[in-house]
Specification:
Oligomer: single chain
Distance between the termini: 38 Å
Number of domains: 2
Radius of gyration: 19 Å
Strand order of the largest sheet: 1-4-3-2-5-6
Order of helices and strands: EHEHEHEHHHEHEHHEEE
Largest sheet: 6 strands, parallel
Helix content: 25-40%
Amino acid sequence: MQQVDTIAEMRSLVANLRTQGKSISLVPTMGALHEGHLKLVDEARRVGDTVVMSIFVNPLQFGPTEDFARYPRTLEHDSQLAEERGVDFLFTPTKEDMYPSYAPVVQVHSGSVGKEWEGAQRPHHFEGVLTVVAKLFHIVMPDVAVFGQKDLQQVAAVKAMVRDLNFPVGILVAPIVRDPDGMAMSSRNRYLSVKDRELGLKLSQALFAARDAFQRGERRASALEAMGWRMLERVVGLTPRYLAVVNADTFQRVNTVRHGDAAVGAVRVGETRLIDNIIF
């Protein structure tokens, strides 16, 4: 594996790969890698000749009161995991290279897809996500980019950007990877104490309960939401932020649930914010 630290070097390598007729798969991350990220590498390897993973903690997608400063930065360990899993190029640009001396004047707006849920809880979050993803697409010029289902609203926003702005990139979505207790793997899980983790598990349990009710025949979104919300609001020490049943592409709330719709939720446990989803 080769680590690439600058945009100029990455572009030069991409140009060379293209002259060799190599296809490129991109796995964009913020580091603090876990098995969920590494499953994305497996998917990238399956569909491309060359796998590029980016690690960049993007300041644009953090709000002023969020955890940008304490977000885990474990580049040495991440590099070892990436190499062991088969990444060819690890792209690790600096903030100064990605955003020279200022925040970008032009940013990508997420529109209606990013308005509610995560977008409402974290103003400007999706603008930061889409702006950095657009930059990575222009720098790496991948044939395919691989994202995880755990960040489902982010996936919907990226798909909309690719479609509406005619990016020549295929988007591949890999299923959520869960720990044995059912919690979706996340870099922020390392913040959780044993007790906090027990509380945080209630989110996945509420989503699983909604899924089970759907499988038994319940199709009213309001009933599924109410069931999940009741499970969350009675847990002392857990602060529910939202739980909703939505169209997985538009992220608009639905009334009647159909196959392919999603239940999405977010909670706060102590200082840690957790998100999760299931697709019906």
